[in-house]
Write a structure and sequence with these properties.
single chain; HNS-dep_expression_A/B; mainly alpha; 73% helix; Acid stress chaperone HdeA
């Protein structure tokens, strides 16, 4: 039952994020995480709305879950991951955001 509630919550969040973008009439740009630097990532975050940032962070968490095989979404861990990602990226703007996400997310 907990899994069903969790899946429904995630689907609800994704739906909310996508409808927010549609309501604004914005066409989201594709993101190439393999080449995205921390500097570009932080600049994008600064210019984006909260829903868009949340969607990107959810994608990164999902990517790392696929890499590690960890299929549990831990909300407390998600917040600390987001904070560690932002802090580490600020200290190393030339690094690739995906490399930083791996280092802080798989610790």
């Amino acid at each position: 039952m907990k899994k069903i509630v969790g899946v429904c919550a995630v689907i609800g969040l994704l739906f909310a994020f996508s409808t927010t973008a549609m309501a604004k009439g914005n066409k989201a740009d594709n993101v190439q995480f393999g080449t995205l630097t921390c500097q570009d990532f932080l600049e994008g975050v600064a210019q984006s709305d909260e829903a868009s940032v949340g969607l990107i962070l959810m994608w990164l968490d999902g990517y790392l879950s696929g890499v590690s095989g960890d299929t549990e979404l831990k909300w407390d861990g998600f917040e600390s991951f987001s904070t560690a990602l932002a802090e580490t990226c600020a200290k190393s703007p030339k690094k690739k955001v995906l490399d930083v996400a791996r280092s802080v997310g798989l610790e």
